[in-house]
Amino acid sequence: MSLSRLNTFMKLAPTATAVRATAAQMQPQRQLSSAQAEPAAHGHHFKTLVISTPKPFVFHVELHRPTKLNAINKQMWMEIKECFEGLSTNPDCRAIVVSAAGKHFTAGIDLNDMMNLGQQLAETDDVARKGVIMERLIRLYQDSISTLERCPKPVITAVHKACIGAGVDLITSADIRYCTEDAYFQVKEVEIGMAADVGTLQRLPKAVGSQSLARELCFTGRRFEAAEAHSSGLVSRVFPDKESLLSGALALAENIAGKSPIAVQTTKESMTYSLEHTNQQGLDHIRTINKLNLQSEDFAQAVAAQLTKDDKPVFAKL
Ligand SMILES: CC/C=C\C=C\CC(=O)SCCNC(=O)CCNC(=O)[C@H](O)C(C)(C)COP(=O)(O)OP(=O)(O)OC[C@H]1O[C@@H](n2cnc3c(N)ncnc32)[C@H](O)[C@@H]1OP(=O)(O)O
Fold first, then answer.
1. Residue nearest to atom 8 of ligand 1 (CA)
2. How many Cα neighbours within 13 Å face the side chain of 85?
3. Ligand 1, from 64, 65, 67, 68: best to mutate by most atoms within 8 Å of Cβ?
């Protein structure tokens, strides 16, 4: 792809255009030189994700292996990481919706990949070398899931039907979870003989606000339905069907994308930091950031907009 075509793509970004995006397409326009754009011509396309920009400053990331129920194979683990790292610094992105194509949100980790891993491990007899292979793999998968939490932009997950195993890891790393009435969730790791190791055990108890419920779900691997997910706080809204779910998630993303990106991204940073720290540490953290941020153009502009009842202030890209 030439630089001019790439620029055209970037200009289209805040409009309703749906494309399979390359990693290079997701870089900020102002950071692209022709040398950097070059990989876009020859670089790979995501094979397991479809990226679109349905609203201004809103990116939609769709898990896309529908014939395998969006089971997360090695390629998808890597592409999730690459995608969210790209969106983290993309100034045209202020909020992200994650949904999935086909019958279910995701059937969890790709079990065929797991079988192949067994074969790969069997190639060496040395336990330390087997351990290194596993260490690298688990770290990659943990990093992939954690890119949603680390991404400064709010991430909204929109779940329909099954959200199993690694799917629960993924959604609990997001900021906001919506689902359909027919959605169900399952921390199924225990059923396949393992302790969940890429985030659910750390994040689910905080998401549902109950160690008792989280432990029950993780020890038993039982299904829990949308109604229970809602009453426990795992999801904050339930929609009748996938269409209304997606439109609700996109409307929320659009609302967030209209606010000051400095305010929104600092809010995410502070709330995520405060999950792991005392109230006083959280207050110290936000004071340090806001002594700069309260001098920003966004603050002056937003305060002026409140005074003049202008409900659509336009904020510079971040
Ligand atoms: C380092 C480790 C990091 C993370 C670990 C995470 C652990 C987990 O994720 S544990 C959870 C593992 N997942 C499962 O156990 C779910 C297995 N699938 C199912 O139980 C069912 O498919 C279903 C989700 C209940 C849906 O059933 P149904 O609607 O009847 O569809 P199927 O006919 O079963 O499936 C269609 C098609 O998809 C393939 N498939 C389904 N799940 C997986 C999977 N997890 N991995 C790979 N492939 C999967 C299934 O084989 C079918 O493929 P065909 O080619 O059409 O046969």
1. 165
2. 12
3. 68
Label residue 282 by pLDDT band (50, 70, 90).
very high
Indicate whether residue 166 lines ligand 1 (CB < 6 A). Answer: yes
Residue 185 CA, ligand 1 centroid: distance in Å: 14
Domain 3-258 has CATH 3.90.226.10: yes
Is residue 118's pLDDT more than 70? yes
- Token pair in block for residue 11: 């200009």
The residue type of 25 is: Q
Q: Which two tokens stand for residue 139?
A: 């770290």
Residue with CA closest to ligand 1 atom 55:
68
* 246 in contact with ligand 1, CB cutoff 6 A: no
**Angle at alpha carbon of residue 47, lines to 43 and 48, rounded to 5°:** 140
Residue nearest to atom 31 of ligand 1 (CA): 69
Domain positions in the chain: 3-258, 262-308
Kindly provide the ipTM of the predicted complex, given to two decimals: 0.99
* Angle between helix 127-150 and helix 74-88 axes, rounded to 10 deg: 40
Output the pLDDT for position 10.
33
Q: Which atom of ligand 1 is nearest to the CA of 134?
A: 1
The protein residue with its alpha carbon nearest to ligand 1, atom 13, reads 108
**pLDDT digits 0-9 by tens, 183-221:** 999 999 999 999 999 999 999 999 999 999 999 999 999
Tokens coding 255: 């609302």
The answer, yes or no, to whether any atom of ligand 1 lies below 6 A from the CB of 107, is yes
The helix/strand/coil state of 189 is helix
| pLDDT per residue as tens digits for the range 120-169 | 999 999 999 999 999 999 999 999 999 999 999 999 999 999 999 999 99
- If pLDDT is split at 50, 70 and 90, which confidence band does 311 have? confident
